[in-house]
């Protein structure tokens, strides 16, 4: 089976003016009327033919070719004289001077003989037939779109997967990551970091804790904002946390642990200070210096935007804090009382969230169009984001940027910015490693195709296959009738206002695929499968960018497994690449602690 995305045929009809141009400029002595005979009578026939085709094409005076030996049908894939030649008044190719289709013809025109050997000759040029070695077609890989085989599909899914064992004995045993681009380059990004911090507990016991950070950054309008978050957001938060973990008076290296609300405020400060740097300080610097050489570097992270999802796990207190700006989502899977549950740890911040809509309307009470069609000013879907200066800066500043450098036009109905903020909403959850808790963080593309319950069920099935946990025993397991069904998962989330998957599930019957050693890759594969269909996955993976963006978003998934290490705590422990679940060929020296 071949899957082809065909562009709309461009040469079904040729205008009378084009035919006249062909007569004057193409049909020289080199080409006789035996090759292409266009007479006055055939022109009349073309005009008559055009009247019957008005409903197919609204362009005026479009006609079809007719030669001595009958009609020549112009369909997609058939190339005739002049079909790929671009003319100008001063420069065009004659048929006897066309460049060769490849470098083997020494510059001679490419001659194609019809398979039927009926005497017709065809000369063709195209972006793929230029004699230059680096044609635009070769550079951009513009080829037919064919269905990939299973090996190619898996290679593409696993290209950017990574997996790490955490040998610290402090409650996190492993984390897996996978990314599947749809934009080129991918607009998503991610970062992970572990920091060992010496602390002094309330009873003056000296110990240390690990701060474990996991970030997913879903960019939009470009990749420059998300890449800034990848490189700087965790550093900003570590700095802010350092200001509230006060140094003990007795020992300089030890720090007192602050309360939860103080930690939340430090995380918020880190988010807001970085966004202020990207949007306000950088643009102020640019306008003051009027330095066009630095315009792209300073402006692009402010013009594009990004959501941010950051998880902060303190191993000493076993407390997980999830901070969200935008519509990426974190969920927690747990097993308790013989039941798998899912709890959503972040709520999507979009123009469809009633709480977010009420907040923005209260901040702009006199603006009736502040939220339109579920979007800020009718345009931006997330109500909180980094960058996106069009929704944060006054019109006067934006006009200066546009005139002095470059930028985008003002959003419609802009009156009293800022409308969008980078301030996160933070939740706090106690983790129970003994309950096989696991955290799933992902950009919104995953949740457009899978429910929270499906995601947890897929992770559970993967854990059973990888022998991380023992399969649940039930009546259905004994008789095997439920072998390819996801386990029952109960959603214990209080606020269920987040958006539901948009993909169709008809006929899926809850089936799934179980092929990957990396659980994040496993989730992405199943998200694309629409209920266990390999053909559906193959079809969506086979579509190249940028066309693929119409059918799927960039996908970034991070899964963190909590659990007890049988070897106990180890302050000297490091990260180890899990080669079986890392197909990207990363450098073994990459992880740093």
UniProtKB/TrEMBL annotation:
A GO MF label: metal ion binding
Keyword Hydrolase applies: yes
SUPFAM superfamilies, sorted: PP2C-like
Region listing for Disordered, in residue ranges: 38-64
Record keywords, A-Z: Hydrolase, Metal-binding, Protein phosphatase
Domain PPM-type phosphatase, first and last residues per copy: 194-562
Composition-biased stretches (Low complexity): 38-61
Family: Belongs to the PP2C family.
UniProt name for this protein: PPM-type phosphatase domain-containing protein
């Amino acid at each position: 089976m071949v899957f082809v995305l065909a562009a709309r045929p461009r040469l079904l009809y040729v205008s009378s003016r084009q035919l006249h141009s062909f007569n004057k400029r193409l049909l020289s002595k080199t080409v006789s009327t035996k090759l292409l005979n266009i007479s006055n009578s055939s022109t009349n026939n073309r005009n008559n033919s055009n009247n019957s085709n008005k409903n197919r094409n609204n362009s005026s005076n479009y006609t079809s070719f007719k030669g001595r030996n009958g009609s020549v049908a112009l369909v997609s894939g058939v190339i005739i004289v002049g079909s790929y030649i671009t003319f100008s008044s001063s420069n065009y190719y004659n048929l006897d001077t066309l460049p060769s289709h490849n470098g083997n013809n020494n510059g001679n025109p490419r001659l194609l003989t019809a398979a039927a050997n009926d005497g017709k000759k065809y000369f063709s040029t195209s972006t793929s037939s230029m004699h230059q070695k680096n044609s635009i077609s070769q550079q951009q890989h513009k080829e037919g779109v064919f269905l990939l085989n299973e090996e190619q599909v898996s290679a593409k899914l696993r290209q950017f997967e990574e997996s790490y064992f955490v040998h610290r004995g402090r409650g996190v045993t492993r984390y897996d990551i996978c990314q599947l681009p749809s934009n080129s380059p991918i607009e998503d990004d991610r970062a992970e970091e572990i920091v060992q911090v010496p602390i002094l507990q309330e009873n003056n016991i000296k110990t240390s804790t690990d701060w474990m950070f996991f970030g997913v950054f879903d960019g939009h309008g470009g990749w420059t904002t998300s890449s800034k978050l990848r490189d700087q957001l965790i550093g900003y938060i570590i700095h802010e946390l350092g200001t509230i973990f006060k140094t003990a008076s007795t020992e300089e290296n030890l720090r007192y642990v602050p309360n939860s609300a103080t930690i939340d405020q430090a995380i918020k400060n880190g988010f807001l200070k970085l966004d202020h740097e990207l949007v306000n300080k950088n643009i102020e610097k640019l306008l003051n210096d009027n330095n066009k050489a630095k315009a792209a570097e300073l402006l692009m992270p402010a013009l594009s935007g990004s959501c941010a999802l950051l998880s902060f796990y303190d191993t000493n207190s076993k407390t997980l804090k999830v901070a969200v700006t935008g519509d990426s989502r974190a969920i927690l899977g747990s097993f308790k009382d013989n039941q798998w549950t899912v709890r959503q740890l972040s709520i999507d911040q979009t123009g469809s969230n009633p709480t977010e809509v009420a907040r923005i309307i209260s901040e702009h009470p006199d603006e009736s169009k502040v939220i339109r069609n579920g979007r800020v000013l009718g345009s931006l879907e997330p109500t909180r984001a980094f960058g996106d200066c069009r929704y944060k800066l006054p019109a006067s500043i934006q006009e200066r940027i546009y005139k002095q450098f470059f930028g985008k036009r003002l959003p419609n109905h802009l009156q009293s910015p800022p409308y969008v903020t980078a301030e996160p909403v933070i939740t706090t959850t106690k983790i129970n490693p003994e309950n096989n808790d696991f955290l799933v963080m992902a950009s919104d593309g995953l949740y457009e195709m899978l429910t929270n319950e499906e995601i947890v069920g897929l992770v559970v099935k993967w854990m059973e296959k990888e022998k991380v946990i023992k399969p649940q025993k039930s009546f259905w397991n004994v008789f095997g009738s439920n072998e390819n069904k996801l386990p029952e998962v109960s959603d214990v989330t209080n606020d269920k206002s987040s958006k539901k998957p948009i993909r169709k599930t008809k006929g899926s019957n809850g089936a799934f695929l179980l092929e990957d050693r990396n659980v994040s890759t496993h989730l992405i594969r199943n998200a694309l499968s629409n209920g266990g269909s390999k053909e559906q996955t193959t079809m969506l993976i086979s579509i190249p960018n940028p066309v693929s963006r119409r059918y799927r978003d960039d996908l970034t998934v991070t899964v963190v497994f909590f659990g007890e290490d049988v070897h106990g705590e180890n302050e000297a422990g490091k990260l180890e690449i899990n080669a079986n679940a890392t197909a990207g060929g990363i450098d073994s020296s990459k992880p740093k602690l």
